[in-house]
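Bug report (template v2)

What were you trying to do?
Predict the complex of my protein with 5-O-phosphono-D-xylulose.

What happened?
Run completed; filing so the output is reviewed.

Input:
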Amino acid sequence: MSMAVVVFENVQYKRNFNTRKSSAKAETSPSRGFNDPGAMSSGPLYLGFDLSTQQLKGSYVPVYAVAITSKLAVACEARVEFDVDCPKYGVEKGVHVSGEKREVYAPVAMWLEALDLILERLRENGLQFGNVKGVSGAGQQHGSVYWSQEAENRLGTLDPSKTLREQLVPDAFSHPWSPNWQDASTQGECDRFDECLGGEEELAKITGSKAHHRFTGPQILRFREKHPEVYKSTSRISLVSSFLASVFLGSIAPIDISDVCGMNLWDIEGGHWNEPLLALVAGREGIGDLRRKLGDVRKDGESAMGSISTWFVSRYSFPGDCQIAPFTGDNPSTILSLPLRPLDAIISLGTSTTFLISTPKYIPHSSYHFFNHPTTPGLHMFMLCYKNGGLARERVRDSINKSLNIKEEGSWDEFDRAVRSSLYLGMRRSSDPIHLGLYFPLPEIVPNVRPGTWRFYYNPSTGSLNEVKESSGYWQIPRDDARIIVESQLLSLRLRSQNLVHAPNPDLPPQPRRIYLVGGGSLNLTIASLVGDVLGGVEGVYRLDVGGNACALGAAYRAAWSRERTTGERFEEFIGTRWQEREAVEKIGDGYNTSTFGEYGNVLKGFEEMERKVLEIDDTTSIID
Ligand SMILES: Nc1ncnc2c1ncn2[C@@H]1O[C@H](COP(=O)(O)OP(=O)(O)O)[C@@H](O)[C@H]1O
Ligand SMILES: O=C(CO)[C@@H](O)[C@H](O)COP(=O)(O)O
């Protein structure tokens, strides 16, 4: 059993999310900036969940009152790690991978077991369920869950003496698996999506994104054609976020207005399903049938969807009027974890790497994503998402550790040392060649390319790019890969976000104002310093103090806002007035540095050219280490 619970007191601390080991007992440890031990037993609490790729996390936020001085501070967290805590499902990093097409999927039963487990862990830790006034949650995006005809009945009549998994598996589902966002088996379906509206730019204009393997529309199309009978017998299709919400509500929850944009089916500006795309997915079963399966989309991101299911009331003593606020995707929920201003950016260094900006602009393009903002009409979320984020960096880390015979599993020390051992872009002397690379152990989204590792030397004065095929004095594989993977991942973010940011003042080049890091990788200060060097950030690079848990925190904030807001009070206002910056974020990097920002700017063209070359030479040999 794994549990990491932190009760806040008024002492500095650093939590370590870096361990993959489980600790059997609830641990309490001192933390920063929160000093009211009574709050857990007396004040109203808001619970936020995150059902992400590798784990299920929960955190709860005490809100003392509606007064200005009220604090929204994390009091506790619990987590379940699928690989460690749910071993019987045999998943690796939370998923199964199989078949010729490398399908990636997760067992729905495992998620229910994890939910049973996390509730027990919250109880063991002394959570006063009776004080929980609201619940919200976040889910990994794009995954779909297929409910049976029995589902509504099962959800509504759960017996409190039995677990969720015992009662819902298998009868509530028509299919035991949820296709995962890392799945890349739908190229054919994506081509049909792009064609359906006349090309990828047209599709991006309407739905916020061109067709992507992981997006739910292409995934459902593949599902219907591969499992026609199962599709027919499916009563409803949920996203991971609305699946989790359904369990709390005790009936199937609507899809949320932001998460729906990860399906390639929703007309963002029109505010409705796109009929030709629905027709493509529905086939002979018909649009009406698909509409019923998908249900209504909830446009109201503020008010609660209903009260908590009686199963939670009877089994855990939640109050009967505990409200279930809308649930959303993990990325939209992450932008709710702080009062984000225009020009502020969040980089989530989780299993995936994502780059998020909240913006009033809607400038769709095939190379990135736009979503509706989860709480605030008129705002949008700009997103870049890379499949090869944390896991690709881990692979380089493991090769370095192996080459040095390091026994300590998962240690980042040598990786960090390797990053610091060369100058920018792998140079040790200014006469050395500039190193650039693409490290994709999984098929990548940005750009859409097969798995492989490609290394190049780049000369900005001649524009020449020469592929590096083996280790040499200039490029020591795997050691030099540590710096190059991080720099190259960041250059890709800079290249693609440069038109979305503007100059914070007339004397500076366009760049984000602040960069907030969240997710597991935000614990790494070496990475944080490169973030500032490559991407800038005129006010610096910050880490959310709950860096590993930002989307669960965003969900808890949303639950609090949904219940406590005054009439017309926007989410940003509600959080902004209660948010204690000094307690919530920590400055971990200086951000913008004139000289490095300029140096990295000079290689953007080469980086773009390298990607073009890799797409061109896609079928030639690449070095896979
Ligand atoms: N000290 C560290 N340095 C770099 N990366 C780290 C560090 N600690 C954790 N990570 C990365 O964080 C990832 C998990 O991030 P997390 O946000 O918890 O995952 P999820 O995507 O499941 O929400 C791991 O895959 C690992 O690569
Ligand atoms: O596919 C995307 C976003 O489009 C991913 O960001 C998923 O939402 C999974 O997130 P993590 O589990 O890595 O946090």
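What did the reviewer find?
The pocket of 5-O-phosphono-D-xylulose (ligand 2) is lined by residues 52-53, 140-142, 181, 214, 262, 329-331, 350-352, 354, 385 (CB under 6 Å). The first strand starts at residue 45 and ends at 51.
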